[in-house]
Amino acid sequence: VQLQASGGGLGQPGGSLTLSCAASGHNFDYFGMAWFRQVPGKERLFVAGIDWSARIPSYVDSVKGRLTISRDKANNTLHLQMNSLKPEDTAVYYCAASTYGSGNVRRMNGYEYWGQGTQVTVSS
Predict the structure, then answer these.
(1) Collapsed DSSP state (helix, strand, coil) of residue 108
(2) 40-79 pLDDT, tens digit each
(3) What is the distance between the alpha carbons of residues 5 and 117, in angstroms, rounded to a whole number?
(4) CA-based nearest residue to 124, from 90, 73, 80, 87
(5) Which of 12, 44, 58, 77 could be bridged to 104 by S-S, CB 3.0 to 4.6 A?
């Protein structure tokens, strides 16, 4: 079972980045999926999630209107479109999958599978 995150890098304030997470080795059709982020010395925090049907997203307030989560069930891929980047978006981003299909579980221990993380740095 593997979640492989990609797409991180350096973005400018006000710019855009797209993260992707490819899932393999398991049927995630009924899993909720999410993105978390973590900065050094701080806990890993929920950013956005999406339910098993790919129809119901959930976001923390600080990213609403700027980040968009989506999933392509046919290709077992999760995405995070990041627009209007801010320096405070700088973090390592992790994708995760949960047997709770709502995609709105905001605690780390609600997720059984994790990707390896991809660094996003927002700086001019």
Answers:
(1) helix
(2) 999 999 999 999 999 999 999 999 999 999 999 999 999 9
(3) 6
(4) 87
(5) 58
